[in-house]
Amino acid sequence: MPPKRAASGASTSAKKKAKTSSDEPPRSKRWSAVSGSANADADYKTTWENPDKWYSFVTICPPPGSNDDEDEDEDEDGNDEENNGDEDEEGSRDGSKCGRKGCVCFKPVSENPDHPWVVSKAGYRKYYTQHIHLSLRDPDNFDMYTYNDHAGYGCLELVQNLILDYVEAAERGWREQWAVCEGLALWLLHPASGIMMMVDDGEFVEETMRLVGRMFLDMLAKLDDMGLVGDATDVKSLGTIMSIYLVIASEVREVGVLEGEDEDEDDDSVDRKVFRPSEFDEAILSYANRRGVTLQGPKNIDELTANLHGEVYLPKKNAKDPWGFTASLKSYEKQYAKGKRHTIGGDDLDITTWTSSQRKEASYDHKDPLSKREIDALKKGLVMQL
Question: Considering its fold, how many domains does the chain have in total?
Answer without folding.
Answer: 1
